[in-house]
Design goal:
The chain has 209 residues and is an alpha+beta fold. Helix 3 links the parallel strand 1 and strand 2. The protein is 30% helix and 14% strand. Strands 4-3-5 form a 3-stranded antiparallel β-sheet, covered by helices on one side. It has helices at 6-15, 20-23, 56-67, 118-131, 138-146, 164-177, and strands at residues 47-52, 70-75, 98-103, 109-114, 156-160. The longest helix has 14 residues, at 118-131. Among the domains are: 47-76, no CATH class; 95-196, GIY-YIG endonuclease.
């Protein structure tokens, strides 16, 4: 046995310290030829069930399921008023913002959009006619030039939309769809989309701005 060196003393001090299990841990045994590591199986997710809460019977069922390894969550039972329709009358679409249509007796229509309600917008169109401001209302100008009667009573909101940008897009689609009086085409739609848009007499229910 050789002389006791400083290295041996240093090693002995570390072997007796807390770092012994880290610095001087026994290396793992080498695998023999043909040995393989088996991957750790993934954790099995717990079985979960949901059941309407029915008072004490629900707690009894919860204990039974728990013994079978199934975790049960209780949910509130469906109440009667949730299945009943509201007694309140539906809101009149003419009182909402959206895209509107004003027909003329000749069969053409004017399509516009408004952030206010329809009666207010129709009053503005009529006021332009009384003051002679025909360039401010395409339907009034059309009526003045052709001597056609505007069917104000048949004016309607055809697409209630509150947000301005989608409303402008829908207005442009409706203008493309209808046979309109001479008017501003509104929001520009790229020609690439025109083959996909409906034309006169077709539905627009599947087109969403």
């Amino acid at each position: 046995m050789g002389p006791y060196t400083y290295t041996d003393k240093f090693k002995k001090q570390f072997q007796s310290s807390k770092l012994n299990g880290i610095l001087f841990a026994t290396p793992p045994t080498k695998l023999r030829s043909g040995d393989t590591f088996l991957p750790r199986p993934p954790p099995v997710p717990p079985l979960i069930a949901s059941n309407a809460y029915l008072g004490p019977p629900s707690h009894c069922l919860q204990r039974i399921f728990k013994e079978a390894g199934i975790k049960v969550y209780h949910s509130a039972p469906k109440k009667l008023h949730g299945s009943l329709q509201s007694h309140k009358d539906k809101k009149d679409p003419s009182t909402r913002a959206g895209v509107y249509r004003i027909p003329c007796e000749c069969g053409k229509v004017y399509v516009g959009e408004t952030g206010r309600n329809l009666p207010t917008r129709l009053k503005e169109h009529r006021a332009h006619g009384r003051r002679g401001d025909f360039d401010k209302s395409a339907i009034v100008k059309h009526s003045h030039i052709t001597d056609h009667r505007v069917n104000w009573e048949a004016a309607e909101i055809i697409a209630p939309i509150q947000v301005w940008h989608p409303r402008r897009i829908r207005e442009a689609i409706e203008i493309h769809k209808h046979d309109t009086v001479p008017q501003d085409i509104g929001f520009h739609i790229n020609d690439i989309w025109l083959p996909l848009l409906p034309t006169n007499g077709t539905s627009i229910s599947t087109v969403t701005p």
